[in-house]
Inverse folding.
């Protein structure tokens, strides 16, 4: 069996298909570009809600390219895509709830000492 | 592409393993759902960071006049502005930018290894795995430097009301701001670093297996794909840590 495989390897060495890496390097370019844009905003724009919104949107774009292309999720079955994405809606709920909770805590502490 | 990965002795009946739900193998599905659960853990960490930040006073003065104080939450780019070899030079976020680039690059070399695996190209898989291992180790080294700098602190430290100064940070004392800021830095980047380290060990294992021809004999490189999924996830988490801890 082992002998068969080594022989097979020699045969296969000749007909290994050429790498198809165009899409990979394109995705890499997009990720580097988006990160560069984030830095551009970090140094040219004043901190605030607008800048934070830009950061979050760019981050979601980056996340999309990593998950869809690098992790190949875009090319999986529809049911797999949705069973990964839908549960993440719970994270959004947790985020809304806890940020509101934090602001409320801050308000009550400040008002208490005033 | 998942069709190129077959088991050595495939079972064909619907109820004896011949049926692949969602057209993905058992191992890949389990990796996906593990990563989903891990996403909840990291999501919870980052949301707690938001909770702590919202329950502290924000810094409202001019960014140029910013000083470290336990009264308000620090501006990240005033905390993370050091670079190895440039002592005392203010380089906001430069080092973390380098770390981000290294991790994105390692993600690219990983996906190139997976691609080579689909073509059963053993030499290319070895080459790209080795690059990924190298970038992964570099990232971990960078993080070690970042931690040691954060722990030992700056030369000025933080001036307290009684005239004494504190330098650096640990779980109870923090020269950069409220102690919670340092705690969350240690927990979030530490948990991420642990994931990188785990992935790095997995990379070493699959590299050794590839060199020994284990996957060539098996007829497919699905293990490289699964470790690749994990490695990309680590990169994905860093993208979020980078935004929510360092940028915002």
């Amino acid at each position: 069996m082992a002998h068969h495989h080594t022989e097979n390897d020699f045969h296969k060495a000749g007909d290994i298909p050429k790498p198809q890496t165009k899409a990979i390097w394109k995705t890499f370019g997009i990720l580097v570009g988006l990160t560069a844009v984030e830095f551009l905003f970090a140094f040219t724009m004043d901190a605030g809600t607008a800048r934070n919104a830009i950061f979050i949107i760019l981050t979601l774009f980056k996340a999309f390219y990593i998950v869809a292309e690098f992790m190949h999720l875009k090319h999986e079955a529809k049911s797999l895509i949705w069973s990964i994405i839908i549960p993440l809606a719970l994270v959004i709920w947790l985020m809304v709830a806890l940020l509101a909770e934090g602001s409320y805590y801050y308000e009550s502490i400040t008002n208490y000492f005033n | 592409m998942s069709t190129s990965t077959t088991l050595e002795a495939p079972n064909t009946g619907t109820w004896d393993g011949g049926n692949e739900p969602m057209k993905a193998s058992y191992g890949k599905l389990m990796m996906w759902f593990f990563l989903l659960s891990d996403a909840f853990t990291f999501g919870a960490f980052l949301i707690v960071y938001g909770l702590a930040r919202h329950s502290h006073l924000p810094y409202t003065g001019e960014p140029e006049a910013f000083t470290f104080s336990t009264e308000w939450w620090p501006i990240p780019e005033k905390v993370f502005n050091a670079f190895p070899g440039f002592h005392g030079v203010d380089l906001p976020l430069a080092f973390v930018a380098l770390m981000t680039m290294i991790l994105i690059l390692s993600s690219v070399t990983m996906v190139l290894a997976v691609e080579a695996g689909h073509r059963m190209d053993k030499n290319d898989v070895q080459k790209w795995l080795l690059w990924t291992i190298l970038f992964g180790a570099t990232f971990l080294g960078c993080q070690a430097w970042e931690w040691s700098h954060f722990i030992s602190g700056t030369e000025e430290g933080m001036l307290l009301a009684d005239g004494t100064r504190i330098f650096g940070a640990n779980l109870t004392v923090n020269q950069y701001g409220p102690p919670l800021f340092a705690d969350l830095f240690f927990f979030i980047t530490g948990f991420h670093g642990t994931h990188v380290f785990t992935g790095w060990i997995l990379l070493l294992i699959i590299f050794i297996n590839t060199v020994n021809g284990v996957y060539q004999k098996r007829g497919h490189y699905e293990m490289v794909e699964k470790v690749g999924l994990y490695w990309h996830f680590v990169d994905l988490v860093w993208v979020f840590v980078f935004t929510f801890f360092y940028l915002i």
